[in-house]
């Protein structure tokens, strides 16, 4: 079964420009091993964040086009309708969009490095995993996959 995951913008950006565990998550997305879920607001957030001047230099060093990165992610992501999330669920109101996407898209998990989200552990039965937890789960699933 292919996991449907909501991946926090910071993981996508970090994994696109630097090596390490977030890079492995992004490679998992690009390879089609998971189905990334997003809302139009999340794609707009990615576009707005990457428009900051500091990311232009990182993109050049990584030999990437920011527009191409955004367009590729937007093409791969399954855009879903978010479900309203009560404002008091998470400390940072910007994190609500990830939870709203997860519930609206019936995600299998949320992947984030945000402590405000990770402290929840789960929301509406959807686990909130760190990058390390996600990668461990993927490795575990690959070792125990069932025949199709």
Radius of gyration: 15 Å
The helix fraction, in percent, is 40-55%
- Note the run of SSEs as H and E: EHHEHHHEHEHEEH
Strand content: 5-15%
**Total domain units:** 1
Strand order of the largest sheet: 3-2-1-4-6-5
Low-confidence stretches: none
CATH evolutionary superfamily: 5'-nuclease
Which architecture does the CATH hierarchy give at level 2?
3-Layer(aba) Sandwich
Quote the CATH topology: Rossmann fold
Secondary-structure content class: alpha/beta
Please work out how many helical segments DSSP would assign: 8
The first-level CATH class name: Alpha Beta
Please give the number of β-strands: 6
User: Tell me about the biggest sheet?
Assistant: 6 strands, mixed
Cα distance, first to last residue? 9 Å
Label this structure with key terms.
six-stranded mixed beta sheet, alpha/beta, 148 residues, single chain
Topology:
Layout: E1 3-7, H1 9-17, H2 21-30, E2 34-38, H3 40-50, H4 53-61, H5 66-76, E3 78-79, H6 96-104, E4 109-111, H7 115-118, E5 122-123, E6 126-129, H8 131-143
Parallel strand pairs: 1-2, 1-4, 2-3, 4-6
Antiparallel strand pairs: 5-6
Helix pairs in contact: 1-2, 2-8, 3-5
Description:
The longest helix has 13 residues, at 131-143. The protein has a six-stranded mixed sheet with strand order 3-2-1-4-6-5, with helices on both faces. It has a single domain (3-142), classed as 3-Layer(aba) Sandwich (Rossmann fold), CATH 3.40.50.1010. It has helices at 9-17, 21-30, 40-50, 53-61, 66-76, 96-104, 115-118, 131-143, and strands spanning 3-7, 34-38, 78-79, 109-111, 122-123, 126-129. It has eight helices and six strands. Helix 1 crosses helix 2 (21-30), helix 2 (21-30) packs across helix 8 (131-143) and helix 3 (40-50) packs antiparallel against helix 5. The mean pLDDT is 91.
